[in-house]
Design brief:
The structure holds two protein chains of two kinds. In chain A, 43% of the residues lie in helices and 19% in strands. Chain A has 15 helices and 15 strands. Classes of the chains: A alpha/beta, B alpha/beta.
Chain lengths: 401, 259
């Protein structure tokens, strides 16, 4: 298996039995247009040069790898390496995809972008790129999430975006995507749906992955240059799965490297109140692609539950479903309480406040380190910083008056 | 030929378009939906579409979203939808189900086609299933003699219209607006062109829906289309006036579809 052919979807966007396009006919032309523009752009040197310039001089790439020697003690002594996507401009990995899609938007001659957001990180990144490129920007965000991520709502508005709180359904990420799809189908002529994760109809899972692939490309080279070896395992949190695919993808051909996705376990998968789509869901179609879905026996989507707004989603990207299906990646749940334990430990041992999303991956590494032992090297995608979560964390730990 | 074919043929012989009425199963209640749909048929609806309520209706505007939410909160299941079809089809009315794809896939593609056919249902409209993903569905619907209705949109190229037309049976659903369901004050002229382009690709009847709510709009569309589809306006009429409201709207629309 070569790197370039590791996981390539077929012409209709299928990863094995997953993916594809389950959308209203009205969107088919727009998806074809995006697919064409994307495949032309990624082989166009002027596009890749412009994107690369932004990644280096605007985002601040490459992001470093930090050796977390103190945190290692909580991981069975394994060597813990943090890929610092939290140090990117806007504070998470989300900017990688957004800059790529904003450039595509310009090439397609569209003047307006819409986005869904859960934790607000994708919304902030989209608002940032829209400001930079002079695009009109509307961000749909579940009303529940606008409350728990109020800081990011303010950031988006400061950047000039319109934030629309969504009051239907569970009032979280799933419903924000529904509302963004409704906007898109009505305004598709002028509007690009700047999709934020590796889910949705083809070509989004492939397109978003390609723009995040830089994470794994850098990390793999940094491992070789600095540590003269590859990691034993790569760990990342999985909601829709963009940061995880971003860091996993380059390692897929390295079959000795374990790929571990950490899903949000909420109150515990056994309680039914969780967002562990692969662990606790079933194959189905949601938001335009076939993948795993939290659903009942009638195919109605079941509401997900997680302390982390960014992981609180009852679906998952189809490439993750495929990697699970073929056994190349393993997906495990981490509960709210476990994630918050890891959150606090990282804060107090390394001086890094992670996003609560990322804290799930950190706890996954604490368990994995004990399994693999002190000789192991574990690479964690530190996908975002936790400023936005300070209020939630302060409440969790009883730090407020 | 199917009862859908007969309904379009009868309308044509009477120099009018067929009137197709939509209501979600379980709205305003399980029995209330049956009563209202029967009133719609008495008022002049030729073909009935029964909506299968789904948790994530991305193609629906606020009116149908609210109706579906009421239905789901009351506990409507797929078996209730099938029973609603049975109650309506028993009177000889051509009855289809309109459903997002996931509930059908989860219920079982073959099982859904079987149970629908056994209940007297004649077809299924799938707004988020395109022919590219419909392999198993084509086989199941063919095996049970159930019509499968795909959609064409204003943005569809002639090539895509040909693809959709080649896989559709019963009639072709042409979306009158780019957007979700719900009443619109005006319908663009582009739909007439879409109907004409669709006729180039298919002999099947072409019915126009999405955004159509008034007798005046129905009359205008009836001049060039074989069928006029109305959904959200029936939901609104029932919200205000119950079954009697549905009957009165059907009567006005039935007058509208005369050429």
């Amino acid at each position: 298996m070569s790197i370039d052919t590791a996981v390539v979807p077929d012409a209709l966007g299928h990863f094995g039995p997953f993916g594809g396009r389950f959308v209203p006919e009205a969107l088919m032309a727009a998806l074809d247009e995006i697919n064409d523009a994307f495949h032309k752009a990624i082989v166009d040197p002027s596009f890749t040069a412009e994107l690369n310039d932004l990644l280096v001089n605007y985002t601040g790439r490459p992001s470093p790898i930090t050796v977390a020697a103190n945190f290692s003690k909580h991981c069975g002594g394994a060597t813990i390496l943090l890929k610092r996507e939290d140090l990117n401009h806007t504070g998470s990995h989300k900017i990688n995809n957004v800059l790529g899609q904003a450039l595509l938007t310009k090439r397609m001659g569209k003047t307006r972008v819409i986005a869904e957001t859960g934790a607000g990180q994708h919304g902030v990144a989209t608002a940032t790129a829209a400001a930079l490129f002079g695009l009109e920007c509307v961000v749909y965000m579940g009303e529940e999430d606008t409350k728990r991520q109020a800081l990011n709502v303010a950031r988006m508005r400061l950047l000039g975006a319109t934030v629309v709180p969504v009051t239907t359904g569970s009032r979280t990420l799933k419903d924000a995507i529904n509302e963004a799809m409704r906007d898109w189908v009505a305004n598709v002529e002028t509007t690009h749906y700047l999709f934020g994760t590796v889910a949705g109809p083809a070509p989004f899972p492939e397109l978003v992955r390609e723009f995040h692939r830089v994470i794994g490309k850098e990390a793999r080279q940094q491992m070789l240059d600095r540590f003269h070896r590859l990691p034993d395992a790569v760990v990342a949190c999985v909601g829709g799965g963009s940061n995880a695919i971003g860091i996993f993808h380059e390692f897929i051909p390295d079959t000795d490297v374990k790929l571990i996705g950490i899903e949000a376990g909420g109150d515990g998968v056994e309680t039914g109140r969780h967002a562990s789509t692969i662990t606790g869901g079933a194959v189905g179609v949601l938001h335009g692609a076939r993948s795993f879905v939290l659903q009942d026996e009638d195919g109605q989507t079941v509401e997900s539950h997680s302390i982390s707004a960014g992981l609180d989603y009852p679906g998952v990207g189809p490439e993750h479903a495929y990697l699970h299906d073929i056994g190349r990646a393993e997906y495990r749940p981490v509960t709210d309480a476990q994630a918050m334990e890891a959150f606090q430990i990282l804060c107090q041992t390394e001086g890094i406040i992670p996003a609560i999303e990322t804290a799930h991956a950190l706890h996954g590494a604490m368990t994995l380190g004990k399994e693999l032992g002190p000789e192991a090297y574990i690479l964690i995608n530190l996908s975002g910083r936790g400023d936005k979560d300070v209020e939630t964390a302060a409440r969790w730990f009883g730090l407020t008056e | 030929m199917s009862s859908i074919h007969d309904a379009f043929a009868r309308a044509k012989s009477e120099n009018r378009a067929a009137l197709i009425g939509y209501l979600p199963a379980g709205y305003p209640s399980r029995d209330g939906a049956i009563e209202c749909i029967k009133a719609m048929v008495e008022g002049g609806v030729d073909i009935v579409e029964i909506g299968l309520p789904y948790s994530d209706p991305v193609m629906d505007g606020p009116t149908i979203q609210a109706a579906v939410e009421i239905s789901l909160n009351a506990g409507t299941k797929i078996v209730d939808v099938i029973e609603t079809v049975r109650a309506i089809a028993a009177d000889g009315t051509p009855t289809l189900v309109m459903s997002y794809w996931n509930p059908i896939e989860r219920f079982g593609v073959e099982k859904f086609a079987t149970e629908l056919a056994n209940a007297g249902g004649v077809g299924v409209i799938t707004p988020d299933l395109t022919p590219e993903e419909a392999g198993a569905w084509n086989a199941a619907t063919d095996a049970h003699g159930v019509d499968r209705v795909f959609l064409v949109a204003l943005s569809s190229t002639n090539e895509r219209i040909a693809t959709v037309a080649s896989e559709t049976t019963g009639f072709i659903y042409a979306g009158a607006v780019m957007g979700v369901t719900g009443a619109r004050s005006s319908i663009s002229g582009a739909i007439q062109d879409l109907v004409a382009r669709t006729r180039q690709a298919s002999e099947l009847p072409v019915a126009v829906g999405l955004g159509v709510s008034t007798p005046e709009q129905a009359h205008e569309i009836a001049q060039y289309a074989d069928g006029v589809i109305v959904g959200s306006a029936f939901v609104s009429a029932i919200e205000k006036g119950g079954a009697q409201g549905a009957r009165e709207l059907a009567e006005k629309l039935a007058a509208g579809v005369k050429r």
